[in-house]
Amino acid sequence: MPPISRGFRGRRPPVDPTRVPPGQYVERDFPVLSAGPTPRVDLDRWQLSIDGAIDRAASWSWEQFRALPQETFTVDIHCVTKWTKLDTTWTGVAVDTLLAGLSPGGAFVSVWCDGGYTTNLPLADLTDGRAWVVHEYDGAPLPPEHGGPARLLVPHLYFWKSAKWVRGLTITVADEPGFWERGGYHRRGDPWREERYWSD
Fold first, then answer.
1. CATH 3.90.420.10: does it fit domain 44-193?
2. Alpha helices in the chain (DSSP H)
3. Closest CA to 129 of 176, 96, 169
4. Which of 163, 189, 2, 1 is nearest to 81 (CA)?
5. pLDDT digits (tens, 9 = 90+) for 22-49
6. Which of 43, 62, 121, 166 has its CA 20 to 30 A from that of 197?
7. Which residues have CB under 8 Å from 131's CB, separation 6+?
8. Domain residue spans of the chain
């Protein structure tokens, strides 16, 4: 019988290239990238808000947020640093659910977070089942280093748009660049178009 190497795990299954945007490679781990230190949040004081150009502002405590209709789904995610992670599973609340009955009066959103991070998105990229505020990853509470207790998840855009430690969405009439966008990153960030920087 031939010797068995404990380090040998066989070949990895082939990846469908149509799932990987141009310039990306598949990452098996989940790298941690942040613009600053990781905030530690007291859930008793946590609140998620929607305000700005909207008929009425709304907010939810942690208990109220967890009581909203929840969805569990599996998506691929794509980081601007060129890694793609396939088949990630999350649980959270659809942005459509949060916006129900609020009648936004602007076409853009500024997302703001604990730690001072902000990012901007067209409202259309957050609606019609395209974005969620998530609090679980792979069946467990979302770790702080990955944005817990809750982060925005917009899987069809580069991952910097999926803001960690999200606390609010402000509806705006004009597009207002956020933290990385003011530093030269693309205002939208479509990985299939390689929209990494303003010049792309």
1. yes
2. 62-67, 95-99, 179-182
3. 96
4. 189
5. 999 999 988 887 666 788 889 999 999 9
6. 166
7. 94, 95, 125, 152, 153, 154
8. 44-193
